[in-house]
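Notebook p. 47: complex prediction with zinc ion.
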Amino acid sequence: MPLVNAKEMLTKAKAGKYAVGQFNINNLEWTKAILLTAQENNSPVILGVSEGAGKYMCGYKTIVGMVNGMLEELNITVPVALHLDHGSYDGAKACIEAGFSSVMFDGSHYSIEENVEKTKELVGICEKLGLSLEAEVGSIGGEEDGVVGAGECADPDECKMIADLGITMLAAGIGNIHGKYPENWAGLSFETLDAIQQKTGDMPLVLHGGTGIPADMIQRAISLGVSKINVNTECQLSFAEATRKYIEDGKDLAGKGFDPRKLLAPGFEAIKATVKEKMELFGSIDKA
Ligand SMILES: [Zn+2]
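Predicted complex, structure tokens below:
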């Protein structure tokens, strides 16, 4: 099945009280592991690409070629969206041109007026081309590609202003943070999330920084309207751990253990296990 935008899968998720995982990709192994896990579990999935990862993988056109090739060669039949994560205005336009099916424009660092203006322009472009668009209000804490946010809570009225522009999904800060959570993290603000959902109605809400949020908080967030959850760091940690173990066990030194197809296999399997675990937690299994 060719790439789809994220609208239908997220509308269904919001109505069915589950969430679709966005798993960020870094290379071929990541992409293949996530696509196969989605197919094996009959789950819709969103492949996330940050601008930094886009550069690393030799540009958006390379990524579109790789993903489209895999959809065909691996006979993927579950809905898959290819989505730009935390895009700049120019980055979003470049991904639209390259063949992504979904983009995020993160205007949270602009004034609300400028965020509205730029988001509105992109709504027009995405509508015309049948793409889904994610917008953001209130910066999300931690660091992503050098952008540091403080983990603030979004203003529900500003959320409504952006949601009313005709976007597909809305990311709003509710105390969540990218990367590993610090020991003294205050947790998610369900009060803020509840207020945002009341103002934005059917709009699917997006929870960024899904790594390390306790399962009960994830489930409560889903019950309050979160329909898309972004996972990035957790796959990186499990890949690194499995790869480290392979080398520490000296397996790269035995026989042809240095062959990249062998060296990267444990990390590949570790990503698959993490993705499956998240799909179970989010409730997206058998929802394709
Ligand atoms: Zn994010």
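Notes: DSSP finds twelve helices and ten strands in the chain. The CA atoms of residues 14 and 202 lie 7 Å apart.
Next step: compare against the earlier run before touching the bench.
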